[in-house]
């Protein structure tokens, strides 16, 4: 198992050493070439001076000014040298003549002979710049190459982290399978193991939660069914025996059992529609037809309350989704509207669409919900006003929580607002097509 740190340090040091060596070698070659040219130029100057001294050929304009004096008499001067002495100071000095600034060197081998050599400072600076440029030019050129190589090396070294991140990002909410990578580096190995252990613990926890809720609901169903039957039989016996129930104890007991039974059914539905472990079976559905089926299912209760329900908008609207979940969504919205709307009230469903989403609006003219409660009613087991809801209707507080889970499962959006009627609640569900 390799180490990212060791790999990066080793490869980068090797690359830097190689590139620096190549750049230094190239700088050495360029500097050597330039120095050789300077030495050759010095030879040409000396040869030219000797030729001029013996009057052979024309004078060379090589950039240096030369003077030779003997006992105060000028024996020789180059073309750039003036007729007067270029310097009276022994050694190096700087002087102005011929419209330039010169670096002058004066040497007296003996009391009779004096040699003076001068070079323009601008020429010296130019030569120095050329030597320096020749030295650093290969190094500068190597910088982009170093940057590209570093980027490639680092990208290759970090590719396992990138693959790890991509696998995590591509996971769905209900996918808790372990992440598998090939050639995992030492630094990432522990993170990968910890992540997979976390997924395993989460999978176990979700499975236990799912099993617990399902088992509890199933276990409670049987005794509740028996209790309902016994209550019904007891009520019939009381009626035949002429036993009165002025306080309504039997009715209250039956209502409590029915509420508990409805709560268990809602818990099972909530557990089943939880996006974290719901296995959706998507298919092409006609939402309008599904809404008509739900309205038909709820119509007996709606008719008993003398309520009016209508379905407006598109007669056909197709989208891909889970049939069971979407039918449950519409059923909960219509059921809530019917339960909490007063007798004789109005319930309205409206279907519309945009190029990329389907829109279902369910609204009523019931008492509605205060805007400050909108964010709370999606919480599990939360009911506005608790059990003392102003409608007097018993409920579990799970209906809208189930609706929200189904909307999340289909990657849609849900919102609450004031009804278009004088009172009531408006629920808007938007689902991608």
Taken as a percent bin, the fraction of beta residues is 15-25%
Biggest sheet, in brief? 5 strands, antiparallel
Radius of gyration from the alpha-carbon trace, in angstroms: 48 Å
Q: Averaging pLDDT over every residue, what do you get? A: 77
Strand order of the largest sheet: 2-1-5-4-3
Stated plainly, the CATH topology of the largest domain is called Heat Shock Protein 90
Tally the structural domains. 3
Quickly give the CATH architecture of the largest domain. 2-Layer Sandwich
**Helix/strand/pairing category:** alpha+beta
Roughly how many Å apart are the termini? 47 Å
Organism: Rheinheimera mesophila
Subcellular location: Membrane
Catalytic activity: ATP + protein L-histidine = ADP + protein N-phospho-L-histidine
Protein name: histidine kinase
Give an account of the 3D structure.
It is found in: Membrane. Residues 215-433 form the Histidine kinase domain. This is histidine kinase. A hairpin with a 2-residue loop joins strand 3 (91-97) and strand 4. The chain folds into 3 domains: 4-143, Beta-Lactamase (2-Layer Sandwich), CATH 3.30.450; 171-278, Helix Hairpins (Orthogonal Bundle), CATH 1.10.287; 280-432, Histidine kinase-like ATPase, C-terminal domain (Heat Shock Protein 90, 2-Layer Sandwich), CATH 3.30.565. The protein has 7 helices and 12 strands. By secondary structure, it is of the alpha+beta class.
